[in-house]
Amino acid sequence: MADERPTTNAAPVPRMKIRYREELLPRLMQELGLDNPMRVPRLEKIVVNMGIGDAIRDGKLLDAAVADLAQITGQKPAVTKARKSIAQFKVRQGMSIGAKVTLRGARMWEFLDRLLSTALPRIRDFRGLNADSFDGAGNYSIGVTEQLIFPEIDYDKVVKVRGMDITIVTTARTDDEARALLRALGFPFAGLPAVSAAAG
């Protein structure tokens, strides 16, 4: 017979999510002139994508990149395949050419917290994020040139330094709404004053 005792070791709610609900949501309602809290933009998911074109020649590079991405995100990546053949790059349809992780819920909030408070400040000569890298539908993308900005990565065990794309998917209806949300969360946009620090 299954043990039906209630579990008491529920995972703690990420601090950034608590801060969004208690502090930022009311502020964004006022800033955006919204009277319904359900209309306030919020995070939906974060997609982290790493291209591994050189894995065509060496499968170990794919394994190493997948391991790095798992270490950074705390979630097993999905290997992405080429959708069509490209002769000039010696790519055949179905070849493994990258790795991708989609983060939701607590893992999404925890990854964002680490990205803003720890990883971005470790970028050499960091001068802020591009405030215009929105896609017109309220989603924002960041290009990172090396995985070493994440402290989870052991420099001595890195097989190859490689970059990644991080896409923040929001429920915002416009880029301006999404920009207001990300600024409130502590995104350091170049040329815009910081609204608040990432750490609550």
Describe the structure in your own words.
It contains 4 helices and 5 strands; from the N terminus they run αβαββαββα. The protein has helices at residues 15-32, 59-73, 105-119, 175-185, and strands at 43-51, 78-81, 96-103, 140-144, 164-170. The chain has a 5-stranded antiparallel β-sheet. Helix 1 packs across helix 4 (175-185). It starts with 14 loop residues before the first helix and ends in a 15-residue tail after the last helix. 28% of the residues are buried.
Relative strand content: 15-25%
Total DSSP helices: 4
As a whole number of angstroms, the C-alpha radius of gyration is: 19 Å
Distance between the termini: 44 Å
Strand arrangement within the widest β-sheet reads 2-3-1-5-4
Q: Judging from the principal axes of the Cα atoms, what is the shape?
A: globular
> What value does the average pLDDT take?
84
Quickly give the structural class: alpha+beta
Task: Please sum up the structure shown.
The protein is an alpha+beta fold. It is built from 4 helices and 5 strands. α1 (15-32) crosses α4 (175-185).
Please give a handful of descriptors for the protein shown.
five-stranded antiparallel sheet, disordered C terminus, 16% strand, 4 helices, 200 residues, single chain
Topology (SSEs and partners):
Layout: H1 15-32, E1 43-51, H2 59-73, E2 78-81, E3 96-103, H3 105-119, E4 140-144, E5 164-170, H4 175-185
Helix pairs in contact: 1-4
